[in-house]
Amino acid sequence: MHPPLPPSWPFAPREPGPGPGTRTAALPGLEGLWTLQAVPGLDLDGAPEPLGGAFGRGGVFRCGDAVIRPYRRGGLVRHVNAALYPGPARFDREFQVHRALWEAGFPTVEPLGWGFRPRLWGCEGVFLTRFAGGAPWPRAWDAAALPQVRALIAALCAWGLYAPDLNATNFQVLPDGRVLALDWDRARWMPGVDLAGRYESRLARSLQKLGAPPEFVI
After folding, report:
1. Is there a domain that residue 168 lies in?
2. Tens digits of per-residue pLDDT, 68-122?
3. How many angstroms separate the CA atoms of 2 and 97, rounded?
4. Cα 173 from Cα 162, distance rounded (Å)
């Protein structure tokens, strides 16, 4: 569950689509069978195409109209456990947050579902979204995107949603100049908390690390 939209919400909500269903399927480019919670009609046929500009922890690829992002751990943990999780609850939580944002009209890619497969003492996971055709913001450092980035963060703060991993690489600039925000892993609603400073601090570290021009200040 999530809190109601704030009165100042600047985006037009989308019509809710059908809920995800459960099925077992092979995923192109990945081993074994996966249990998927995915929207009806999802087509994953075809050869996988790596997305080299993803700026993530590796392994993100496109298959037809879908993007498949394997879950990968960051920090020092990745050296001893790169991809195993105790269970699939984390994947489902990201999907619920992402779907709420999508239905609220927030500028993000369309969430299509998630999947997992048992492995060793836990499971591996993947997240599926619609391919949008944009490029990561740090590829060009388009200054025209900066006001949109600020507006997206302000909207998240107004709704009380905190995404601790939201950094400059998770903003995608479409060919028409629109900006989307991606990756809601570990995001959670924190109503009544001043989130602006947290977002500003996280993005400032990201901008500095990636070598953004000095005028790029959130």
Report:
1. yes
2. 999 988 654 454 557 799 999 999 999 999 999 999 999 999 999 999 999 988 9
3. 8
4. 21
Q: Do 39 and 140 share a domain, yes or no?
A: no
Angle at which helix 196-209 crosses helix 146-159, to 10 degrees, equals: 150
Q: Are residues 95 and 162 in the same domain?
A: no
Percent of the chain's residues with pLDDT above 90: 71
Chain centroid to Cα 108, Å, comes to 8
DSSP E strands, the chain: 21-26, 33-38, 49-50, 61-63, 66-70, 111-119, 122-130, 135-136, 161-162, 171-173, 179-181, 188-189
- CA torsion sign for 13, 17, 23, 27 is negative
Same domain, 171 and 203: yes
Indicate the length of the chain as a whole number: 218
182: which 2 tokens?
A: 């991606």
Nearest Cα to Cα of residue 203 among 121, 145, 119, 131: 145
For residue 11, tell me if it sits in a domain: no
Range of the domain at 126: 21-130
Contact, 85 vs 8, CB < 8 A? no
pTM of the model: 0.93
Q: Are residues 142 and 82 in the same domain?
A: no
Token reading at 75: 């920090």
Q: Is residue 8 part of a domain?
A: no
